[in-house]
User: What shape does this take?
Amino acid sequence: MTLHAPYDADNIFARILRGEIPAVKVWEDDHVLVFMDVFPQSEGHVLVIAKTSTARNLLEIEPEVLNRVVAATQRTARALEKALKPEGFQIMQLNGEAGGQTVFHLHFHIIPRWSDRSMKGHGHAPMAEPAVLKALAERIAAELEPAG
Ligand code: AMP
Assistant: This one.
């Protein structure tokens, strides 16, 4: 998928937003949804998406929506750090098929890292058990600071 193509309203994140397929949610508000990556590259791999935009990538996202998504990413990373105590974390945001993007609805990945644990490759991680993801999501959500 090129960087320049129409938004596919049936992409998997659009279907999650419409409630057509399940997702393990961490938190949401009117503007953003934060949920567990079902093929986690490390324990606690989270995705942050906008609810109100059909931007497929960073080139297309409206600046005010980007601000909300980045703020949500920071809020989630703070909670994740308290809950899972990673030694570090990676923020990943891929653009275009050649950039490694596989779902064409703009999103930020938060991937917790520990120095003694390897990270699974993007697109090569096994599917996680919903119950395991739900337990992680609850631990992260429990550490959220009040919305600013
Ligand atoms: P990207 O390749 O940057 O577009 O990332 C898409 C991410 O979505 C990958 O890390 C996938 O593991 C993840 N993913 C794909 N399908 C689902 C799903 N149904 N629920 C949660 N995460 C998903």
Observations:
- Strands lie at 25-28, 32-36, 46-50, 88-92, 107-113.
- The chain is about 25% helix and 20% strand.
